[in-house]
Amino acid sequence: xxxxxxxxxxxxxxxxxxxxxxxxxxxxxxxxxxxxxxxxxxxxxxxxxxxxxxxxxxxxxxxxxxxxxxxxxxxxxxxxxxxxxxxxxxxxxxxxxxxxxxxxxxxxxxxxxxxxxxxxxxxxxxxxxxxxxxxxxxxxxxx
Length: 143
Ligand SMILES: CC(C)(COP(=O)(O)OP(=O)(O)OC[C@H]1O[C@@H](n2cnc3c(N)ncnc32)[C@H](O)[C@@H]1OP(=O)(O)O)[C@@H](O)C(=O)NCCC(=O)NCCS
Description:
Elements: E1 2-6, H1 11-25, H2 34-38, E2 44-50, E3 53-62, E4 67-75, H3 84-98, E5 103-109, H4 113-117, E6 122-130, E7 133-141
Bound molecules: coenzyme A.
Coenzyme A binds near residues 73, 74, 84, 109 and 118.
């Protein structure tokens, strides 16, 4: 298994959109539109691979000089609870730190809060709805 940064618009990016669609949108009866995908052109795209198979992924969106937002975190259904999510988050944190960011925030689905808490993320503020399901903002200072 290996982790790497991938480039927007490549076959690997198409693989990533497909995984995210399967894991994060279809189960909610939603899909991506071109406009939101175009915003990913300048974002940091991260994927976990076993040979040519993408196992999971996430994206870092720079918000300002200090903060990135971790988004679109997903691991294939049948591969969850095997440590892949943990390795993706640790790779993303190291990358963010190397690029000089101090904070990672996210809009965490309530069902994933326990996962992020394992890595030191804390809830900030009240519940809100996104993609029709409950979320909380979570934050961690990178040290
Ligand atoms: C959330 C998700 C990314 C976690 O990935 P994963 O590969 O299953 O996680 P890991 O196996 O690395 O788990 C790391 C730790 O978190 C725990 N954990 C994993 N998912 C959890 C969850 N949903 N709630 C609470 N704890 C969780 C694991 O038990 C493990 O704990 P341990 O170290 O004490 O054994 C994955 O379940 C997923 O893709 N879910 C569907 C999409 C989703 O909800 N994405 C998040 C959007 S905000």
